[in-house]
Amino acid sequence: MATPPGSRTPHLFSRGSWPEVRRVGDILRTETVGGLLLLAAAVLALAWANSPWSEGYRALSDAEVGPAALHLDLSLAAWAADGLLAIFFFVAGLELKREFVAGDLRQPRRAILPVAAALGGMTVPALIYVAFNAGAGGDALTGWAIPTATDIAFALAVLGVINTHLPAAMRTFLLTLAVVDDLLAIVIIAIFYTSSLHFLPLLGALVPLAIFGLLVQRRVRSWWVLLPLAAVTWALVHASGVHATVAGVALAFTVPVLRRTPGPGPGLAEHFEHRFRPLSAGVAVPVFAFFAAGVSVAGAGGLGASLTDSVALGVIVGLVVGKAVGVFGATWLVQRFTRARLASGLAWWDVLGLALLAGMGFTVSLLIGELAFGAGTERDDHTKIGVLLGSLLAAVLAAVILRARNRHYQRICTIEERDTDADGVPDVYEDQTTRG
């Protein structure tokens, strides 16, 4: 059917604006380094937990620090899960708010794809997990949300290792999908993994949160003012029974994105992002991975015992098959029921490679596993093995496809974007009228 005069066919994975592409490139470099640190921390934890010195690892994880009078005498592993991951979710909240307020995704036609892909990539894995565990009995079904997460740091580390020339729009898609995924995960944690709720501390948390929001709306940046308010908000959310990482997202959503007066330079949300992203990617997430990934294969009943547990099988198949089917299927449905088509030069193999890469759950999957079954339980150990194997298998399959497409990526990405004028902006980004 002919396209009506004056209309344009929207393209999936079309180029964004040059400032957005450059900003995303900076984010991806930070997250790639963080992913490599995350990988190193996980390998170290696994090696230590399965060595003759494994008792030392457990003693370190269980060591309690913090003021007992405030009920914050938590183990180091709990501080990593509840405290450090709040920084991770704070950065994710800033990124998501900025994308939808000032980024390319403020345009509905650009936002629909990553949002739909994130929803598909969470729904299908959850259904697969439930199918594996419907008759398992016990608490098996409580882990339904484990395979729904995507670990952006790990996924980008894989991209860095295989050295693809992935088009900027597809990298942006992967980043945005993971950020939306993280937000949906924190909603799931808050609703489904809150065992007991205490309303008084939760209502009390609104006071420092409101003061924090009022100050940042007035563009206050002083850490010695904002950090205590953030800490009090976190402590009260923790005391309420809601997982404390929710406080990170709540704080992020109060930060303004746009500058008060138009002009060059980042807004406050982007300023905080630059400040806290290295701390999140380089410290918070790797430290959490170190304490969360140290499962003893022998202690879990052996690798064979884990692979016969429907929980581990549901996690593995959910991450590898469910994520791929969910993300790929949602992308296909978007183009099927809209006028959108893949951008020129791209193929559905590219989408499949990204969909498989989204199956690297790791950080949030490990967190949900602990919340579902309790840290240190046998099923939590089986969950960890499932997450590790599922993420590894998804990474290998994605690497095979993306490696095969490497020359194609190089042709459509580097050749088109190498022509740059004296203004430093690639020519392909200067003609905004030709973008789908």
TrEMBL record:
GO terms for molecular function: sodium:proton antiporter activity. It is a multi-pass membrane protein. GO terms for biological process: regulation of pH. The chain crosses the membrane at residues 32-49, 69-91, 111-132, 144-162, 174-193, 199-216, 223-239, 245-262, 283-305, 311-334, 346-373, 385-402. Its main location: membrane. The keyword Kinase does not apply. It comes from the Bacteria. It holds the Pfam family Na_H_antiport_1. InterPro entries: Na/H_antiporter_dom_sf, NhaA. Coiled coil: none annotated. The keyword NADP does not apply. It catalyses: Na(+)(in) + 2 H(+)(out) = Na(+)(out) + 2 H(+)(in). It is found in: Cell inner membrane; Cell membrane. GO terms for cellular component: plasma membrane. Keywords: Antiport, Cell membrane, Ion transport, Membrane, Sodium, Sodium transport, Transmembrane, Transmembrane helix, Transport. Na(+)/H(+) antiporter that extrudes sodium in exchange for external protons. Belongs to the NhaA Na(+)/H(+) (TC 2.A.33) antiporter family. HAMAP family: NhaA. This is Na(+)/H(+) antiporter NhaA. It comes from Micromonospora krabiensis. The lineage of its organism: Bacteria, Bacillati, Actinomycetota, Actinomycetes, Micromonosporales.
